[in-house]
Every structure is written in C-alpha cells, then in structure tokens.
Write a structure and sequence with these properties.
two-stranded antiparallel ribbon; 502 residues; 23 helices; 5% strand; 3-stranded parallel β-sheet; mainly alpha
Length: 502
C-alpha cells in the first residue's frame, strides 16, 4: 500500500517455499541462516502447539523468534484463541505453549485473535506501523551518513600512504598494504623505529580529527541518532589505518618482543585516555572510541593467531585517570558502556536501541567489513563473541565487579564454540587452549576468575530482559577436569537443570 511513498515493498517468505535444501548443518540452522538472519520483520503465530524442541530452544519457531528479537528485529507474535475440538489437542504441547506464552508476555507485547477476519485486520495494521518505523530509521541512517560525509570532506579526512625515512613504500591505506608493510618492518633493522614513527603520525592524525572545528560542531549539538551515528562514522574513518596496522601486527608481529608489546600497548592507551573538557559529558567519553576500536581489532586478530601476549599487554596496562586522580586498568577506560556514555550507546546506529548490546552489535559487522569481508559469517561470529567473553572474564579477574556482557549473551549459535574453548582452556589443550590459559595467568587464576564471574552473572539477570549472562564457567572447567566434554548449549542446560533438582 505504501510502496511508492516509502520506496519499500514487503516480500513474505517462509521455510516451506523459500529455504534451499542444505545438509551441511541441522535444518533449523539452515532456516536461521537463509531466512531469519536476512529478514527485517518476523510474524509468529501460535494456536495449540509450541513445536518440536531444537538443540538451542524449546521449538524451531521459538528459536526463530528469539534469534530475530535478539538481533533487534521486529517480532510480531500472535496467539489464536480460535476454538478447536478437545480431541485434536496435544495437552503436553498446549501446556508448554501456555508456559512459554507467559515468558513472551514478560518480555514484551503479544496479541491474540479469535477469527481470521480479526487476524487479517490486526496484522495489516501492525505491519503498516512497523513499516513506518523502518522507513523512519532508514531516513535517520541516510541523514547520518550524509552528515558524516560532509564533515569528513570539510576536515579533509583521507587515508594517505605513510612515508618513512628508510622505507618509502610503507603504506597502511589498505589491509593488504598494512600486512605487507608490517612483514617488511619485521625484517628491517629499522622496523621498530619506523613503526614508532607510524604510530605517532596515526595518533596525531586521529587527535587532529577529534579536535577539528568541523567535528566539534557535531559534538556541541544535542545528541541524536543522526549526530552520534555521523560522529562514529567519522572516527571510524580516521581510525581505519590504525585498525589495519594493529590487525597486521597482531597477525605477524612477535608477541615476545618487549618493543612490539609496548608499541601496541601505547597505541591503544594513548587513544583511550580522556581529556576532561567542558560541554556535554558524553563528548569526553566518545573521543576515546578509537581506543575501543583498536582493542577489538587487536584482540580478535591476536586471539585468532594465538599471539595472546599482545592482548594481555593491553588489558593489564594501568593508566592514570585525571578524572579520578588515580590509576585505573585500561579495560575500565575502553568499556563500551563508558566510551558511549549512558544512553549514547543506543544512538550509535539508528534502530539499534532495540538491541541488548548496541555498541557490541555495531562493532561486530563493522570490524568484519574492515578486516574479514570474505569470511563466512558464522566463523567470524565465533571469534568475535569468544573475544568479548574472555575480555569480560578477564575484567573480573582484574577486579571489576560489573563486567561488560557483549553479544555472546544472546547469540546462541556461538555458545558451542565458547563452551569448547572454555574446556580446552581448562585442560590447556587444542590449538588455543594453552594460549588462553596464559591470558588468565594460569589454571588457578582462571578458576578463581570463573567463580567470581559466575557469582556476578547470577546476580545480573535483572540487566537482561530476554537473555542472561553465562553463569556456568566454573562448572565447565570442573567437567573438563573430570573428563566430561560438553558439546552443545542444550546439553549444558540439561546438566544445570539436573543440578538444580538435586
């Protein structure tokens, strides 16, 4: 009805007609990947059955709804009150459905109907309102992109090749250039000095953008989805060469070299240090966004290559805070909740205010597009969520009593990878188990961190409307020590349920 004025059409899809057969993974996972992950809106309808359980949820339909809702998509859920013959009701299914209906109603708003005419009227009205919301967000997104482009042009922001005295062809304009440059610097007797020069130039360039008059005009405005999104895009553009540089160092650098460890640590620290100024308080925080980008870049890159000492060097750094006149662990400075201070996180990208972890959910595709554009999404998600999890656990080891719970709290398809990694770490087995154990300074410290983490998670359920922080880390370690491997989240849930009964 509104295709012309909104330049938008609706295409209804369902697994019966639109899913392509694929035997590489379980059926519901195929449906999730092909349909749920690509949809903009989900309409769920129940009558007397909840459905067949899956390894991840109470039924395939529930898994689809929870997955879509966790990603911030609109889920319009209806329950049919249409009469049916008692002999046609599976009462076990009906009981499960009523129980889950209560769960849905605690999370949000559902609707019911008694006749098909009533359903037709309601779903038409609800879809129209949802499409209007989508169109509004799209307008905000385009406005933010335009604002960012205009400001970048005014600043003269571009990624220019870096020239050094000894190596005229050193460049960080693209990821491929950065990788070739780092390899060359590692072989050069002047490589450390050149990398120091590059670091200083890149930090200076980012600081120039942060203090520019053009960016200041956005920072001095009342925060909106358009202005915060534009600010984020400008900072991301300015930081991209540094992202390329640290990703390459994390892949090829020597994490046993004191000099290289200091370079990456100082690079992240300098861009994470706040300078207290007047104006809106959130401005002082969002200017440390480059530090957050580099922490995620270095962390994911080093975790994948097993060069964990780079990441440990960064997260264990103590830096002075003028704001509190004392030293803080660097993780306190680049916590996503503080970089995007208070409610600013909900504005980082239009439409993301519906998500559990708006900053984490923004960084996930951003870093993939910059560093891993051709990688299979599921593989990348595994590493991204594992990085956020181990940094969250590490922050507890370093004394934080309110860790950041990122995308791993709701992205159920990465649970298996995280569970396996925890157990590998406990046994110091597998390709990365020993490395991650070293990140926590050994088995004893890992177990103590796990105990504290689980205690905090058990007290943090109120922070999550539809998902919970993992509170089973110590259990997984104990099971691994006993030779019991857990392979799925559903298997773990069964163990936790049995322990609760006992």
């Amino acid at each position: 009805m509104h295709a012309v004025e909104m330049t938008m059409i609706l295409q209804p899809v369902g697994w019966e007609t639109d899913a392509t057969p694929d035997l590489r993974e379980r059926g519901q996972a195929v449906i999730n990947r092909q349909l749920v992950d690509n949809c903009d809106m989900l309409i769920g309808v129940f009558w007397t059955r909840l459905g067949t359980p899956t390894p991840q949820a109470e039924s395939g339909t529930v898994e689809e709804i929870e997955r879509a809702a966790s990603e911030g998509k609109r889920c319009i859920v209806y329950f049919s009150d249409k009469e049916t013959s008692p002999s046609g009701i599976d009462y076990e299914q009906y009981t499960r459905l009523q129980e889950y209906k209560q769960v849905f109603n605690k999370r949000g708003l559902t609707n019911s109907y008694k006749t098909l005419d009533e359903f037709r009227e309601r779903v038409s009205r609800h879809i129209t309102k949802a499409v209007q919301d989508i169109a509004k967000e799209e307008r905000e997104r385009r406005a933010a992109e335009q604002e960012a482009k205009i400001t970048e042009q005014a600043i003269g922001l571009s990624t220019q090749p870096i020239q050094t005295k000894q190596n005229a062809d050193i460049s960080f304009e693209t990821l491929a250039d950065a990788q070739a440059s780092v390899k060359k610097l590692l072989q050069s007797k002047y490589g450390i000095q050149d990398m120091e020069d590059i670091k200083e130039k890149e930090i200076a360039k980012i600081q120039t953008v942060l203090s520019s008059r053009e960016l200041s005009s956005l920072l001095n405005q009342q925060a909106t989805a358009e202005s915060i999104s534009a600010i984020a895009q400008i900072i991301e553009t300015a930081t991209t060469p540094s992202i390329y540089a640290l990703a390459a160092v994390g892949k090829y650098g020597d994490d046993y070299s004191v000099d290289w460890l200091e370079i990456v640590g100082d690079w992240v620290e300098r861009l994470s240090t706040r300078k207290l100024e007047g104006g809106y308080k959130w401005v002082n925080y969002i200017k440390t966004y480059p530090g957050l980008l580099l922490l995620y870049t270095l962390g994911i890159s080093t975790l994948r290559t097993g060069k964990i000492l780079f990441l440990r060097e960064v997260v264990e750094r103590q830096i002075y805070s003028r704001e509190h006149d004392c030293e803080f662990n660097l993780l306190n400075k680049v916590d996503p909740r503080y970089v995007f201070y208070n409610n600013i996180s909900k504005l980082i990208e239009p439409g993301f205010e519906r998500r559990f972890t708006p900053v984490s959910d923004h960084l996930c595709p951003l870093i993939k597009n910059i560093l891993y554009p051709n990688e299979e999404e599921a593989k990348y998600f595994n590493w991204f969520d594992l990085f956020e999890f181990i940094v969250s656990l590490k922050s507890v080891q370093l004394g934080k009593n309110r860790p950041y719970f990122g995308s791993f709290t709701w992205r159920t398809e990465t649970n298996r990878f995280i569970i396996k990694s925890i157990q590998d770490t406990a046994l110091r087995k597998g390709r990365y188990g020993a490395k991650i154990s070293d990140f926590f300074n050994g088995d004893t410290n890992l177990k103590l961190a796990a105990q504290n983490y689980d205690n905090i998670a058990n007290q943090s359920h109120w922070e999550f409307g539809r998902v919970s922080a993992p509170n089973y880390v110590e259990l997984l370690i104990e099971l691994a020590k006993e030779g019991k491997r857990v392979t799925t989240y559903r298997e773990l849930n069964n163990i936790l349920s049995q322990l609760d009964k006992n």
